[in-house]
C-alpha cells in the first residue's frame, strides 16, 4: 500500500492507495507554520480491518518528525492512535 501526501498552504491530506484504488484518506489543516490538525480519517469499506488508518497516521507522524512539526489529532480515530501509542507522543501538540 502506498501513502501519498498532498500538501497545500492551508490544508492537506494523506491518501492510501492499493492497486490503483483509494483505500482511505486522512485530511489535515495547518495551524500556523509548525503544527497541523488531523481533522478527519476515512477508510474505504473494502479495506476495513487492514490497518489503513494506522498507516496514514504513522505517515503523518513521520512527516512531522522529519520537518520538526507538531500534530493536534482532533479526529477521534487519530486521537485513539496517539492514545494507544505513547512512542509517538513526541509530535503531539
From TrEMBL:
The keyword Transferase is assigned to this record: yes
Q: Which InterPro entries does the annotation name?
A: Acyl_CoA_acyltransferase, Gcn5-rel_NAT, GNAT_YJDJ
Q: Which Gene3D superfamilies match?
A: 3.40.630.30
Q: Name one GO molecular function term.
A: transferase activity
Taxonomic lineage: Bacteria, Pseudomonadati, Bacteroidota, Sphingobacteriia, Sphingobacteriales
Which PANTHER family does the UniProt entry name for this protein? BSR4717 PROTEIN, PROTEIN NATD1
The record's section on Pfam families has: Acetyltransf_CG
Concerning CDD domains, the annotation shows: NAT_SF
The protein here is known as: N-acetyltransferase
Name the source's superkingdom.
Bacteria
Entry keyword set: Transferase
| Record-linked SUPFAM superfamilies | Acyl-CoA N-acyltransferases (Nat) (SSF55729)
Q: Which residues form a coiled coil?
A: none
Q: Which PROSITE patterns match?
A: GNAT_YJDJ
Domain annotation N-acetyltransferase: ranges = 6-93
UniProt keyword Transferase, yes or no: yes
Amino acid at each position: 500500500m502506498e501513502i501519498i501526501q498532498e500538501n497545500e498552504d492551508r490544508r492537506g491530506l494523506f491518501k492510501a492507495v492499493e492497486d490503483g484504488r483509494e483505500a482511505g484518506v486522512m485530511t489535515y489543516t495547518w495551524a500556523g507554520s509548525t503544527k497541523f490538525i488531523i481533522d478527519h480519517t476515512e477508510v474505504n469499506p473494502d479495506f476495513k480491518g487492514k490497518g489503513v488508518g494506522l498507516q496514514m497516521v504513522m505517515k503523518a507522524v513521520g512527516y512531522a518528525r522529519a520537518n520538526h512539526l507538531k500534530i493536534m489529532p482532533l479526529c477521534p480515530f487519530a486521537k485513539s492512535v496517539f492514545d494507544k501509542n505513547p512512542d509517538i507522543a513526541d509530535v503531539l501538540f
